[in-house]
Design a protein that fits this description.
Elements (H helix, E strand, L loop, with lengths): L12 H9 L16 H13 L9 H7 L1
Protein name: Tc1-like transposase DDE domain-containing protein
Organism: Lates calcarifer (Barramundi)
GO molecular function, one term: nucleic acid binding
Length: about 70
């Protein structure tokens, strides 16, 4: 069973045809549902920590150190 959002590209005819031709079952996924992708939450948490207090990093090395 495959889950996808209701983005326009997911609902395109070619996408629907591919899924049907390959017998891929889709789970119901309501439009405008909550973002349940945990990596998005991790990225948000990390960005808030790295850039707290308006910190601006000037080099890749500085970013690595902050992370």
């Amino acid at each position: 069973v495959f889950q996808q959002g209701n983005a326009a590209i997911h609902n395109a005819g070619l996408t629907r045809d591919f899924l049907q031709e390959n017998n891929i079952t889709l789970s119901d996924h309501p439009a405008c549902s909550l973002d349940l992708n945990p990596i998005e939450n991790v990225w948000g948490w990390m960005a808030r920590k790295v850039y707290k207090n308006g910190c601006q990093l000037q080099t890749v090395d500085a970013l690595h150190e902050a992370i």
